[in-house]
Amino acid sequence: MRERFEQGEIDIDPDDDKLAAQLGSIKWGIDSRGRIKIESKDDMRKRGLPSPDRADAMAIAFAGKANAVPMNIESHAGESITGDLMSKAW
Question: CA 23 to CA 35: how far, in whole Å?
Fold first, then answer.
């Protein structure tokens, strides 16, 4: 996912402070085989951080999408999803 950010393929909502904080708080390193190892949720909890739910959702959404088109992720936090969804312009 880091490469997708660097290449401009992912652009998060600049007002989504929660997602930005979650993405920025996850530690990572390189394992003995040269692979990127991302901090576990248990280790994050030990550091007093909550589960990075938004970052998880974003990672899942982009998993395996190596040739996907660029996408702008816009936050709809606080908006209701009830009512007439057909008339809602997302």
Answer: 19
Strands 36-38 and 28-30, how do they pair?
antiparallel
What's the confidence (pLDDT) of residue 69? 61
The parent domain of residue 15 ranges over 2-74
42: phi then psi, degrees, rounded to nearest 5: -60, -45
Of 52, 49, 51, 48, the residue nearest 1 (C-alpha): 52
The single-letter DSSP state of residue 10 is E
Please list the rounded mean pLDDT of every run of 10 residues in the chain (90 residues): 82 89 91 90 92 89 66 63 54
- Indicate the pTM of the whole model: 0.62
* Residue 87 is assigned to a structural domain of this protein: no
Q: Which helix (H) or strand (E) holds 63?
A: none
Overall number of domains in the chain: 1
